[in-house]
């Protein structure tokens, strides 16, 4: 059995925030009008762009979000560090809220339905989606023990699960699906283009295994790649950032960057796999110790 003490301090702290926020919502429902994202009230209540990401309105939402946060953070925190993990969660939640706000305003203008302006949207699903993208980046080829599915497919399968569940829970589709999709996309944007790589003096991860089309099955990538490339050139044009002392990249610099990316990718995945193995070994040790003690008693 996994001990709660083995989870990171940051993730336990954020879990407490989620649980307390849900209890406040449960016993003081009017608070949702100030903490959840309600597009018609975002101005002047602009703080709900931040608070909505840590405010769960449903019990199942807080349970799923807390479990996902604890276990994904347990893998990512040792590799990224607590400061980087916190920065990632905060930015993904904030950017997700902005994307959801813009989407609801757009839907209102094309449909004239005030429902989109006054539906309270909140939850940690955007950050969970971003964390799953982080797992995809760090340990993409690790198989889940029971499902026999590689971790690189976790974000895609989670989005598919939300889409399927929305057919049975129509009233919550507006709050679950856009939040999760935007969370996964903004998490990918951050890791692909913005995350700092101080040891390699540039940002992001341009490996082929982390392209946008890698979230889709092989047979769809021929269709996705041209579209993704067009958006990439339009909005996310990569600028490799070196330190001030490095200066401009001379001829042959592209090969140097490529080799650095390959080395970084291998190092990151090796670190992720090692951390995962250490976690599993640590969890199995107490069980083996108890079994050995029991066998000794039986022999006596």
Note down, in words, how this protein is organized.
This protein is mainly alpha-helical and 300 residues long. Helices cover 65% and strands 1% of the residues. The protein has eleven helices and two strands. The longest helix has 47 residues, at 253-299. The chain is globular and about 50 Å long. The relative contact order is 0.10. The model is unreliable at 239-261 and 296-300 (pLDDT under 50).
Distance between the termini: 28 Å
Report the radius of gyration as a whole number of Å: 22 Å
User: What's the overall average pLDDT, rounded?
Assistant: 79
Derived from helix and strand composition plus strand pairing, the structural class reads mainly alpha
Q: Strand-and-helix sequence, N→C?
A: HHHHHHHHHEEHH
Strand content: under 5%
Number of strands: 2
Work out the helicity level: 55-70%
Count of helical stretches? 11
Side by side, the strands of the main sheet go 1-2
Largest sheet: 2 strands, antiparallel
Shape: globular
Report the uncertain regions: 239-261, 296-300
Oligomer: single chain
């Amino acid at each position: 059995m996994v001990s709660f003490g083995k989870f990171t301090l940051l993730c336990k702290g954020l879990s407490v925030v989620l649980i307390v926020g849900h209890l406040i919502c449960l016993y003081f429902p009017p608070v949702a009008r100030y903490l959840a994202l309600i597009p018609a009230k975002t101005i002047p209540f602009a703080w709900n762009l931040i608070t909505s990401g840590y405010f769960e309105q449903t019990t199942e939402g807080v349970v799923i979000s807390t479990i996902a946060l604890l276990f994904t953070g347990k893998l990512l925190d040792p590799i990224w560090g607590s400061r980087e993990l916190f920065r990632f969660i905060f930015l993904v939640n904030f950017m997700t809220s902005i994307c959801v706000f813009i989407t609801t305003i757009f839907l209102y203008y094309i449909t004239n339905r005030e429902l989109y302006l006054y539906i309270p949207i909140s939850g940690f699903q955007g950050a969970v989606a971003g964390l799953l993208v982080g797992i995809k980046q760090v340990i993409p080829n690790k198989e889940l023990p029971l499902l026999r599915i590689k971790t690189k497919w976790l974000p895609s399968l989670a989005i598919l699960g939300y889409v399927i569940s929305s057919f049975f829970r129509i009233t919550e589709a507006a709050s679950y699906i856009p939040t999760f999709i935007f969370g996964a996309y903004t998490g990918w944007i951050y890791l692909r283009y913005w995350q700092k790589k101080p040891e390699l003096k540039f940002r992001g991860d341009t490996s082929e295994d982390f392209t946008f089309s890698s979230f889709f099955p092989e047979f769809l990538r021929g269709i996705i790649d041209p579209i993704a490339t067009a958006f990439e050139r339009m909005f996310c044009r990569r600028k490799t950032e070196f330190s001030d002392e490095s200066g401009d990249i001379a001829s042959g610099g592209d090969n140097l960057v490529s080799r650095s990316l390959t080395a970084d990718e291998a190092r990151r995945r090796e670190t992720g796999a090692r951390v995962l193995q250490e976690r599993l070994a640590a969890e199995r040790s107490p069980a083996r110790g108890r079994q050995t003690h029991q066998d000794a008693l039986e022999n006596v």
